[in-house]
Amino acid sequence: MKLYLPALTLLLFLASACGRKYEPIAYGKDACAHCKMTIMDKRFSAEIVNPKGRVFKFDDIACLRGFDIEPGSLLFVNDYSGKAAGPLLAEKAVFLHHESFKSPMAGNFPAFADEAAATALKDSLGLDFLTWEKLP
Amino acid sequence: MTILRTILIFLLLPMGLSATVIRTGPDSLLQHALDRARPGDTVIVAPGHYLQHEIVIRTPITLIGENFPVFDGENKYQLFVITASGVCVQGITVQNTGRSSMVDMAGIRLQNAARVRVSNCKVLNTTYGIYLQNSKYCVIENNEIRSSATDELQAGNGVHAWKSDSLLIRDNNISGHRDGIYFEFVTGSAIIGNVSTNNVRYGLHFMFSHNDGYSRNTFRHNGAGVAVMYSKKVIMTGNTFSEHWGDASYGILLKDISDSRIEHNTFARNTMGVYMEGSSRIHIARNTFSANGWAMRVQASCEGNTIETNNFLDNSFDVATNGTLMLNAWRNNYWDKYEGYDLNRDGTGDVPYHPVSVYSILSERIPSTMILYRSFLTNIVDQAEKIMPSIIPDQLRDDSPQTKKWKL
């Protein structure tokens, strides 16, 4: 009996931690948690799932970065090219940065699944690849 | 008088002599006629259906359509690109532009141009209707800009202005886009007398645009009426905001705005009339708020705003806020929920009015309590709180509420 309770709590904790996942964004309905704009653009939308499982949705990666991110949160970004099957983890995605992308909040950071997906755009605009840590 | 006429004739004569009129029809390429034209010429386009696209106007000419000739982009191309200054386009129909994720396809695009006038045109079913890029002193007036944003994620804006200055957007009828009118990095411009309805996101949207104004416009049934964000010195007068219902729906959404004026507007039947966050030094006066869910929602991050001489009628909640600190001035408003008295009959109530009800505080913290709204218990709590305020922010009050409605 003594062992049950901690074991049960641990199990529940693990279950909730595993259960944390990307919640689909209702485009045209959900509002950005940071700038309050209605999220419309699939190419730049992003999401935070915090350690407790609470979901915050954003219309621009710049909004996500402006948000107070709890340590241990899952950070999702969407693939700019729309070719990836689902959302990408921000730490693993590849980014570009250029004014001509015109994202909703002028962050202008498109995200890509890997370097191959972004190469054409990178070359045509003469940019460098960026990672999550290196975003300006 | 005769001298004046002579001078006038002499002034006009050179123009009349040098300018020629070029006529063109569906059988010939308009681009050829445009390339042949010299500055000051007039190109008249005969009625018909033109399957021509990416038409570039490089010289300052006047393009007139007879009986709305139709330029069709076949859902693949963009139609007119104006790169010269001093161009005038009127009376044409452009329709069915393509959609692309990299290029913003537009019905009529102005690129690095000045003094361009687009008037009396029909822009139908386009991704971006009229697109102004790095343009100055342009006039967009009396156009019918309609689309049906069924694929709302790819939809563009009706009138889209980017990095422009001194524009006049007047008397257009815009519907069915993402944003009716969109301003990004646009300064010193005016938006007057437009009707913007049924747009998916906003009727009008400002981003990083300073010293602009919009007056006498009607915003109805959009995702939200107007969003003014990260801008300074925006003047908003005489507009009507109505029928904006939904979770993230506002008459006006103000986010990080300062030194602006909101006057003589009507907010009717919106989920929220005015939502403000991080905004300062805004003068909100002589507006009518009627039958909204929340007339105003003023977040605690706002300061130095003055809210005076407004009418608040039939709103479920007059004011909501998310903190106890209140650094704004509320005075001389008419509140239909005011139950005080006026013994000396000077038109000003003798006891202050607290526009934030207990329930608006409760629903701010626990949204699901709305289920008990308008119940008997709620009324008792409301009455008790009016006598002895404990939950409601007691700094947020109107010390001089009016007992008579303002005639606005």
Would you mind describing this structure in some detail?
Chain A: This is Nitrous oxide reductase accessory protein NosL. Chain A: Keywords: Signal. Chain A is built from three helices and six strands, in the order αββαββββα. Chain A is α+β, with helices and mostly antiparallel strands and 136 residues long. Chain A is globular. Chain B has two domains: 222 residues, Pectate Lyase C-like (3 Solenoid), CATH 2.160.20; 131 residues. The model of chain B has no long low-confidence stretch (mean pLDDT 91). Chain B has 408 residues and is mostly beta strands. Chain B is 11% helix and 40% strand. Chains A and B meet through loops of A and strand 25 of B.
Question: Low-confidence segments of chain B, ≥5 residues, pLDDT <50?
Answer: none
What would the average pLDDT of chain B be, to the nearest integer? Answer: 91
> How far apart are the termini of chain A?
53 Å
Provide the helix percentage of chain B: 10-25%
Give the beta-strand count of chain B.
38
Radius of gyration of chain A: 17 Å
Sum up the overall morphology of chain A in one term. Answer: globular
What low-confidence regions of chain A span 5 or more consecutive residues with pLDDT below 50?
none
N→C terminal distance of chain B? 46 Å
Helix content of chain A: 10-25%
Within the CATH hierarchy, at the fold level, what is the topology of the largest domain in chain B?
Answer: Pectate Lyase C-like
Largest sheet features of chain B: 25 strands, parallel
Oligomer: heterodimer
* Class based on secondary structure composition and strand pairing of chain A: alpha+beta
Strand content range of chain A:
5-15%
In terms of structural class, how would the helical and strand content of chain B be classed?
mainly beta
Largest interface (CB within 8 Å) is between:
A-B, 17 and 24 residues
Q: Gyration radius of chain B, to the nearest Å?
A: 26 Å
